[in-house]
Amino acid sequence: MVITALAALAAAGCGSGAGAAPKITTTARAGVAPTPPAKGAYFGAYVPPEDVARPKSSAGSPSKTSGSPDGSASPSAGPSGSPSQSPSGSPSGKPTGKDAGRPGMEPVAAFESGLGRQLDIVQSYRGWKSPFPTGLDSSVLASSRYLLLTWGGADTKEIILGEHDELIRSRARAIKATGKPIFLRWSRDMDKKSSQKRVHSAADFIAAWKHLRAVFKQEKVDNVAWVWCPSARGFGSGNAGSFYPGDDEVDWICADAQPGGDYDYRDLSEAVKLFVQWARGRAKPIMIAEFGVPKSYGERRAEWLRAAARTLQDPQVKAVVYFDSDEQADDARDTRRAFAVTGDKRAVSALREIATTPYFNPRNLPVTSD
């Protein structure tokens, strides 16, 4: 394999995102819940099911089968078998789509084929009342990939009062029963105005977060890493930091960091700048759970991705998840909110460069030739 400039930078440890990062700590148990790699960052993606992969205008409203009735966990609104090895080790075989026959895995396997390697993390979205794990979740858990489960929120005041305890206990027991390490990202983008009706206030959110964790603790759920994830933009135009529950309540700090549909062109470095500055004060690993390059950037998409790779080679960034979907677009003409790279050879090649760079392949997963 040709060693790219990105690989050379990573090997030298001189990515442009490098800086003074704090010593990272986590409440998660190593070998039981997902913990950060010693070096580099996990590479993951959200690959939508085939029935929600298209913009709204060409397929109607995106399917809500993975979310709640109000779509609160849907990205547009905002286990059988056993693994050959645990996610802490290298999987056997090559990324040739051998898992494509498992429920929900065909789109993921197709994405991995173009990427040239198996993903470390596969993200799924589930609504507050949706059962899990099912379908794709179970397939991911039966493989050597990590599951990033994005779970929709509910009314924080109702959670605080214990009105949802039965549901929470049911989900906690289901997660525990898998016996597999799971990233749990609950009520992401809680800082956005669109979430205010159910979130109410930062204080209410924090109290609800602590209530959830307390119920999970009562159920002795140890295989979860709690991912706190506001919007990156909320650190500039809002007060995202005020929703932070505290270092003893959070395992990973996260941000959704798409460039924004109101920009003609914006580097990822600008989108995450204020979030990363805030994160420097927290001894936690960083996850960028939703980043993507808009189709509106045209021939500059590859350039954007290579610049993003330099930004993400930061000693505190330990996981990055590409949002390979167009479902946030209002219609087929809304290319500022369309992020799928399928069919764009230059963008696919640039994303492949990132994924196969040693920095973003800390488990040394097998890589296929171009």
Question: How do the helices and strands line up, and which of them pair or pack?
Answer:
Blueprint: H1 5-12, E1 42-46, H2 56-59, H3 106-115, E2 121-126, H4 136-141, E3 146-151, H5 156-160, H6 165-178, E4 182-186, H7 196-199, H8 202-218, E5 224-228, E6 252-256, H9 268-279, E7 286-291, H10 301-312, E8 317-323, H11 345-356
Parallel strand pairs: 1-2, 1-8, 2-3, 3-4, 4-5, 5-6, 6-7, 7-8
Domain GH26: 73-351
GO molecular function, one term: mannan endo-1,4-beta-mannosidase activity
InterPro entries: GH, GH26_dom, Glyco_hydro_26
Would you kindly provide a written description of the structure presented here, covering whatever features stand out?
With 370 residues, the protein is of the alpha/beta class. The chain has one domain: Glycosidases (TIM Barrel), CATH 3.20.20. The chain is 28% helix and 12% strand. The protein contains 11 helices and 8 strands. It has an 8-stranded parallel β-barrel. Helix 4 links the parallel strand 2 (121-126) and strand 3. The longest helix is centred in the middle third of the chain and has 17 residues, at 202-218. The N and C termini lie close together (8 Å). Residues 1-18, 57-71 and 77-96 have low confidence and may be disordered.
